[in-house]
Amino acid sequence: MWNRPWSMKEGFLIGGGLIVAGLALQQCVGQVVWDAFAWPVNGIVLAGFIALVTVIYLLRKKVYGCQFIGTYQAAIPALTYAVILTIIMGLTRQETNGTWLNDMLSFWPFVLIYVYMAIILGQVILRRALHLTNWKRDIPFMLNHLGLFLAMTTASLGNADMQRLKMITAIGEPEWRALTTNGTVKEMPLKIELKKFIMETYDDGSPKRFASLIGIKTESGKNIETTVDVNKPYEIEGWKIYQYGYDTAMGAKSEISILELVSDPWLPLVYTGIYMMLGGALCMFIFGRGVRRREKQ
Q1: CA 123, CA 117: separation in Å to the nearest integer?
Q2: Which DSSP symbol is given to 289?
């Protein structure tokens, strides 16, 4: 054990050590507080993380542990732990500020394993990027791995900047205040006025569709009138406005409408990573077909 070259035994021990360290952190300091990573902290952390990945790669010839991180003997155990923890997350009820396994995204062992996975992924990307030899293999590889790296890091760090608020609007009364998930009042950079509540029902009187005709005024001077549905939000200046609820006692005659306002400024980066992976898969399909066609000839 621990004789060079290290094998997957050492890889599993490293991953296990991260889980033990995570459990100790969970016990000592509590769950990961993602709100502490709000902008600009998450931007600084991302830059520092990329620098750390680069330093580890540069030290690979001097420090054997850094070299090992970029091998499949390290990647397979890390992926195994990540899959197990992800399955546990899928099998347990997840809720904000839940206890340990009930809030896996803030569970230290889960976070540390995924950070380790991202470091390994970064090593693989750098090694391949500096030794490009065959573009038909390298392009799909880089798109897939870079896309995964981008999606993983930005989805995690961007979580701190995501806002999901509720706003209660009434006919003829412009509203600019919304409630956070913990009940705090937040003043918004826009005013929303309910013009009309719309409800369509089935023959038995149960709701078929409910929506709101609203007027929106922004600090930048925009004055818009639009309709929002439950699954058809209106997007303006970084905010998506969804229909959320209404006065159920009044039904179709409701004079108030509850809207949900969502802001996720890092989402375009997450989507970019996903599109890169889709592009990589498409390139693999196209180039793979070309190779098979030549082999048949």
Answers
A1: 10
A2: H
